[in-house]
């Protein structure tokens, strides 16, 4: 579960595979591909509920998507609450946040004098 949260944070904040107009990957090198590091991942508190699943072996359930799916929407909603800007594309890089905040300020205040 904690690994799924870390993976989701990476997809939400950092991970971008660049492609050209034909779909060929143009990301220069994997070593430049930003992945979350230990300091990027907040403490994760995990609670399991006892349930049964008739399909899974011995009632087990898949854990792949469960921790991954809510991270990006929760992060985007927190940014919306903090900034008033709705982010709908991932990853939400700091450059993207800066540009959105700058555009919002220009719309609100008008062009700089």
Sequence stretches where pLDDT stays below 50 over 5 or more residues: none
Specify the number of helices.
3
Task: Give the overall shape, derived from the CA principal axes.
Answer: extended
Order of helices and strands: HHH
Proportion of helical residues:
25-40%
| CATH superfamily annotation | Aldehyde oxidase/xanthine dehydrogenase, molybdopterin binding domain
Q: Please indicate the count of domains.
A: 1
Describe this structure in words.
The chain has 113 residues and is mostly helical. The protein has one domain: Aldehyde oxidase/xanthine dehydrogenase, molybdopterin binding domain (Aldehyde Oxidoreductase, domain 4, 2-Layer Sandwich). 36% of the residues lie in helices and 0% in strands. The protein has 3 helices and no strands. The N and C termini lie far apart (51 Å).
Describe the structure using short key phrases.
113 residues; Aldehyde Oxidoreductase, domain 4; single chain; 3 helices; mainly alpha; 36% helix
Secondary structure: elements and pairs:
Layout: H1 2-13, H2 71-83, H3 94-109
Summarize the structure.
The protein has 113 residues and is an all-alpha fold. It has 3 helices and no strands.
């Amino acid at each position: 579960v904690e690994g799924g949260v870390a993976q989701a944070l990476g997809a939400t904040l950092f991970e971008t595979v660049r492609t050209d107009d034909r779909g060929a990957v143009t990301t220069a090198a994997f070593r430049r591909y930003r992945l979350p590091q230990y300091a990027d991942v907040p403490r994760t508190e995990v609670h399991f509920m006892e349930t049964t699943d008739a399909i899974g072996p011995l009632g087990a359930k898949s854990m792949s998507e469960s921790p991954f799916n809510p991270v990006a929407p929760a992060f985007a909603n927190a940014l919306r609450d903090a900034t008033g800007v709705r982010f709908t594309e991932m990853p939400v890089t700091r450059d993207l946040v800066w540009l959105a905040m700058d555009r919002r300020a220009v719309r609100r205040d008008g062009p700089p004098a």
